[in-house]
Amino acid sequence: MASLLKALLGTLLLIALVLPHCDAHVKPRHAIRKHRPNFKTGPWKQAHATFYEGHTGTFGGACGYEDVAKEGYGLNTAAISTAMFNNGQTCGACYEIKCVNSQWCKPGQPSLHVTATNLCPGGSSGGWCDSPREHFDIAHPVFSHLAEYKAGVVPVQYRRVPCMKQGGIRFTITGNPYFNLVQVSNVGGSGDVVGMQVKGHDKLKWTTMKRNWGQKWETDCMLAGESLTFRVRGSDGRYSTSWHVAPRNWQFGQTFEGKNFKQRRR
């Protein structure tokens, strides 16, 4: 009898180890519905800017975006230095940049609005993207709106601004039934995402997803066969919930568009 119990316990332990662990919980309604003000423009700060080459599909790099031109970001994108990147959390944030104190600045100091879609990695001691420097490496096609190419590097002033996006937040689902990866893009308001949850229509309760890298979020819970609802939390504390955005028969590789944050430029 004792040996039978040991065998049964061993089997149960093996099943527990094999089955995926889902960090499921229900978010209190009052916490979701509590009013929070729209994302506000931040103070002006000092930094420098350069430009980098590349095809449109490569401007997403360390943030996980596949093709920024198709995902709502256009070519007004920038790689930001390690001090600003915050291990990928800043991906999707929007900035207003002005060239200052350089003979190569465009007349009138026009503003350039960009979205952070990549990392400008450090590596060489004293390099522009090494900590603690704050730096923008701007996509080549739009750097000319800020300054002359011949400048190479220019001093700039910058500030965080609300992200004004067309359409809804986009959710691209990849992976397999035992490991689901959801890329979040085209986020308005604060632009960056600090929290993600998913819920099914049947068995899957509200489940917290973990940041895999950049703006790709993971869960090993079973999502296949469920109509999916996603809840996104921005760095300003606001939530956006896209109810049943993916139908029950969704397939890996598909992108679905949900509800975006309402935002007015200030």
Features:
single chain; 11% helix; 34% strand; eight-stranded antiparallel sheet; mainly beta; 14 strands; six-stranded mixed β-barrel; 266 residues
Helix content: 10-25%
Mind summarizing the main beta sheet? 8 strands, antiparallel
Q: Tell me how many strands there are.
A: 14
Structural class: mainly beta
Oligomerization category of the chains in this entry? single chain
Helix-strand topology string: HHEEHEEEHEEEEEEEEE
Give the terminus-to-terminus CA distance: 73 Å
Low-confidence stretches: 11-20
What overall geometry do the principal axes of the alpha carbons give? elongated
If you compute it from the alpha carbons, what radius of gyration comes out, rounded to the nearest whole angstrom? Answer: 22 Å
Write the layout of secondary structure elements.
Blueprint: H1 2-18, H2 29-33, E1 45-52, E2 77-81, H3 82-85, E3 94-99, E4 112-120, E5 135-139, H4 140-143, E6 154-161, E7 170-176, E8 179-185, E9 193-199, E10 207-213, E11 216-219, E12 228-234, E13 239-246, E14 255-257
Parallel strand pairs: 1-5, 2-4
Antiparallel strand pairs: 1-6, 2-5, 3-4, 3-6, 7-8, 7-14, 8-11, 9-10, 9-12, 10-11, 12-13
